[in-house]
Amino acid sequence: MAVCALTATAVTLLPGDGAPHRAVPAAATTARPAEQAVKDTCPSPEASLRPTGDLDGPAVRRIKQQGHLTAGVDQNSYRWGYRDPATGELSGFDIDLVRAIAKDILGDPQKVNFVALSTSNRIPALRQHKVDIVVRTMTINCDRIRQVAFSTEYFKGGQQVMVPKGSPVTGFDDSLKGKRVCTADGSTAKAEVERAPHGSTLLTVTNQLDCLVRLQLGQVDAVVNDNALAAGQAAQDPTVQLVGQPFTAEPYGVAMNLDDKDLVRRVNKVLEDYRSGGSDSPWMRAYRHWLASDLKGIDAPPEPKYLD
Amino acid sequence: MSHPQPSGTRAPRAPAAPATPPSAPAPAPSPPRTVAWREAADRLRAAAVTEPGRLRIIGAVLAALLVVLGTVTAWQVAARASAADAVVHHSQPLSSDAAAVYRSLADADSTAASGFLAGGQEPRTVRERYDDDIALASRLLVKAAANTDGSGTARERIAELNAKLPEYTALVEAARANNRQGLPLGGAYLRYANDRMRDELLPAANALYQAETGRLHSDYADAKSWPWAALGLGVLTLAALGWAQRRTFLRTNRVFNQGLLAATGATTVVLLWLAVGHGVARSELQTSYAHGAHSLEVLTEARIASLQARSNENLTLVARGSVLTKDDEDAYEVKFREGMAKLVGSGGADPEPGSLLDRARALADDKAGRDPVASVIKDVREWQRRHRDARSHDESGDYRYAVDHVIGKQGDTRDSTGETFDSADKTLGNALDHEQNDFHRAADDGREALSGLAAGSAVLAVLAAAGAVLGVGRRLSEYR
Questions:
Q1: Chain A contacts to B (CB-CB under 8 A)
Q2: Which CATH class is domain A58-157+250-291?
Q3: pLDDT tens digits for B100-115?
């Protein structure tokens, strides 16, 4: 499991003298599904429509008529969806997935019109049909499934702690005591740190990447963030690393309009293909290309859950 | 012709004589100065009874009045001349240097963002412009630190700017380094640098500018204030001279006393010179104020507003929607619109009433001043139009188009918002130069109107005093 690997990494990197007693709380901080359950009132939000039957319905035909797929993405999340400053082109794990969907529907991975969406614009853009799909590290939860339709889970994310290598912080635990922690405003991380500060003081910034700036400038000691985004940050600075284990569970899905049921099935079919092939599946190749160096220990994509 | 009345003069002269001997023992032993003072008063009272005694007193009072008039006039005029001098050589240069610090910092910030958007192919001109801005700001800060006087606010702000400028440039360099490696972290550094510029450096530069401009205003007020003491004293002296001459005329039937007449003439010249000279200086200073303080201030503000709008326009493309307002709008786009509203407002070809460019246009008093403002208004309207076009392309996914139409393509800024911004900025710079020249011309004229007045009035007053003494002495001699 990824979690065990990460704990192991954290322990081996601890300074010799403090290691034995500090390693214990790290193990104690396991993911907290119970907490999630209180917030989510639906049993299994990540369950989606089975990729059978109508795979070429009105929504898919609409996209074919347009001649291109309109996809809402992020352009600021390194390794997921970001614009390469040198080329100005979008790339990342999410972008690869969009191209795979375009290739399946239109036969050409280049037939995509990317629209940069801010976090809060994702749902309105889908509901107003400004975009066909949103692939933007979007967490599937009970609140959202009432407003938009999701594909099956394509990545398992969770909140995690990121610190400079050599830091005594071992994870989301009491090793944070007296430390300054950075989170993005309005993020799950902020809510989690406020709920359980572990003796730390909180600095809130407007954007998750601003936390890495503050960490490099020595204004904070640790960053709490979605591990997917944290991996993108760690990839930009070889002197930081993720420690401890993810302490929330956040399944990512491709979001679509609630009416576009055929498109949901079609995307789930693409995901089936994307996941299949064992260690040589497109999913694993994308993982190794974009994420593996900083988000270690994942050996398979998440298993899909279906409603029907 | 008529002889003095011996009875009236001689009688009191007898008691006046014994008054002299007691003055000798007066400073001697027991009686302190109250006694001496009383004796002097007694003597004066005694002297006032005789005509020669009265004449002596009148002569002394007139001479004293004239000397005081000369002194007060010279002193008050010198104070105004030095305030006018301070306006031209001290406070206005400091104020315009502070404005230049403010402008170069804002320009550095918008230039850094432009260069950032160009990525690895940052044009050399952009890099040089940023370096020049930072160098100019540092140089002016050193100069300001050396020249600013007393004002605690100005000193504190200069110290703050000196401390924060290197922090800012360090952040910009970190942004560049990360950007060249293709890391989005560079954008976060640039946004942080911009935050520091907007929230710390620019407010400090603005406070410095306000402090120096406040100093300029107070120098103006000092230079323009009417020299009431000198004017009042002049009128009083003239009245005293008139009274003395009338008294002589009534007593002697002689119409003219040449000495007193000369004194009156000299005093009148001092008074007129003072009133006209100061009046002219005042009106020229008023003109220079309209340009120096007012026009320059509004134009400077307009230039800063356009620079900040430019920074925000660039940062919209750097941040790419990662920083939002409470209402989920792009924070930099919102700031851009706010800056534009302040600069020119909404509406058609004309600027909205009350906007900076509207005020600048109203303050421009000749064609040479109005033309550049009109050209800036045209540029800014075109800038707004191109900006909307670039935004709509960016929002529909064509980021490349938006960048090309904001910073230009490979250093070619044609049809970009950068072209209109550069043109507006350059024209605003020319308009500032024009107003600065107007200011200097008027302020120099004002200063010249006061030249020679202090020395001249002193000399004239001394001459007048001599005339008064001679004139009274002549009358006095008739008693010997």
A1: 70, 75-78, 82-86, 88, 113-121, 206-207, 209-210, 212-213, 216, 232-233, 236-237
A2: alpha beta
A3: 999 999 999 999 999 8
